[in-house]
Amino acid sequence: MKILYGVQGTGNGHISRSREIIRCLKSDGHEVKVIVSGRDPALLWDMELFEPFTAVRGLTFATRRGRIRYLGTALQLDLIRFYADIRAFDAAGFDLAITDYEPVTARIARRHRLPSIGIGHQYAFCFDIPVKGQNPLARYILDHFAPADHPIGLHWHHFGHPILPPVVPELSASPAPAADKILVYLPFEEIEDILRLLRPFDAHSFFIYHQLEQAEEQGHLHLRPYGRSGFLKDLLECSGVITNAGFEFVSEALAVGKKILVKPLAGQMEQLSNAEALARLKLGEVMKRLEAEAVGRFLGKPRGVQVHYPNVARLIADWVGAGEFADVSALSRAAWSQVRS
User: Fold this and answer.
1) Is residue 214 part of a domain?
2) Is there a single domain that holds both residue 190 and residue 289?
3) Cβ(290)–Cβ(263) under 8 Å?
4) DSSP secondary structure code for residue 326 in this structure
5) For the packed helices 247-255 and 269-281, what is the interaxial angle rounded to 10 degrees?
6) What is the pTM of this model?
7) Residues 240-247: what's their mean pLDDT?
8) Domain carrying residue 242
């Protein structure tokens, strides 16, 4: 098939997940055209597999110091450009649209009556799962941001619904991770706040990935610019991760058995709900703010929980190729039957 695939560029989780699914689709012989939205193209990295791709403005949230800024979000919206990008896209010849919670592709599919599949953690919220921080505006945005004919939700548990496990790359944890090495990925926090938080814990080495131009060493604080290969190396070698409560990176940490401390993005329903689910499932620790006491408790904890996930990207690609989009329940059962912890 000729597939239009939309990737939301806010954060790196959508990109990481989509990379695995697109790899499988291309290996099956499908022609895949990618749209990435929500991030400055200059800040995209390790995008070779997505070629050819088009970067558009799309829609995204404004954040500052770990909190969504609704006024800033409203002021930065460019709806004229958003709908112009939708109208300008030539959808001739496409058989299917897949959106990883990407709004431009979702609306191109609606405009041209293309069958559409939504793949992403956000689609799990169609079902009765742990939810926190819900309000009418947040619920409306979640339901209407990137609509799809056939939504496929991903989560750390199925909660009795046709939800799939996370899509994670094949990772092999280091046989002897360094007990004092901690990977830090807090993209929605200010770097100065992160350094202030971690500086007192000089018995540990913190590898901190942030929007930086170059690497920098500050004693036990090792600052790193974004880069997939170095990031994965540090993930495999560390004993634990401190991160916002995004879905994909936490899933990767679970897959290699790292202890987890999350600080959800304040005011963001999805991240607040993720933190709630992690706590309920006893898969990680939660702090409401950048809090030294919580970090100290976390550093003293033993190894985290490891969850062995199947190759969900391959299962999805096979399901897409079969064309039986109405039956997600069988796909869900097949996936969860292979999960081990």
Assistant:
1) yes
2) yes
3) yes
4) T
5) 20
6) 0.89
7) 96
8) 181-299
Neighbours of 60 (CB within 10 A): 17
Query: Residue 340 CA to chain centroid, in angstroms?
Result: 22
Task: Say if residues 106 and 116 touch (Cβ distance below 8 Å).
Answer: yes
CATH of the domain at 208: 3.40.50.2000
Instruction: Give the model's pLDDT for residue 309.
Output: 96
Alpha-carbon torsion (272, 277, 279, 285), positive or negative: negative
Confidence of residue 67 (pLDDT cuts 50, 70, 90): low
How far apart, in Å, are the Cα atoms of 140 and each of 36, 123, 134, 199? Answer: 23, 13, 10, 40
* Sign for the pseudo-dihedral over CA of 7, 13, 136, 38: negative
Total structural domains within the chain: 2
Residue 175 belongs to some domain of the structure? no
CB 14 within 8 A of CB 187: no
* Biggest distance spanned by C-alpha atoms of the chain: 59
**DSSP state, residue 208:** E
Instruction: Give the DSSP per-residue string, 67-86.
Output: EE-HHHHHHH--HHHHHHHH
Q: Is residue 148 part of a domain?
A: yes
Which tokens belong to 333?
């059962």
What are the angstrom distances between the C-alpha of 93 and each of 21, 27, 105, 310? 21, 20, 15, 33
Q: Are residues 247 and 160 in the same domain?
A: no
Mean pLDDT in residue range 271-277: 96
